[in-house]
Amino acid sequence: MLTMYSTPWCGYCHRLKSQFDREGIGYEVVDIEQDPAAAEFVMSVNGGNQTVPTIRIVPADGGAEIVMTNPSIVQVKAALAGAGVAG
């Protein structure tokens, strides 16, 4: 499963969402301004900063999760392939 932590005003987030849609990659969006637990997670993996987009990939087989901050679509596709997660 791919989760994108985002905010409504983040231009990088809008661009990456458009690229996911164009590539047929399924994802869930979590607005860190509306979800305090999500904001805490983002800060925990970004040195205390609320940097978005932050991407979290959790393999269905229970493998190690992958977290990436402001990745390119190429990096996300490679991570999904490496984790054995279909886009």
Automatic annotation (TrEMBL):
SUPFAM superfamilies the record matches: Thioredoxin-like
UniProt KW Oxidoreductase keyword: yes
CDD domains: NrdH
EC numbers, comma separated: 1.20.4.3
EC top class named in words: oxidoreductase
GO molecular function, a single term: oxidoreductase activity
Keywords: Oxidoreductase
Pfam families with a match to the protein in the record: Glutaredoxin
Recorded superkingdom: Bacteria
Domain Glutaredoxin, chain residue ranges per copy: 3-57
Protein name: Mycoredoxin
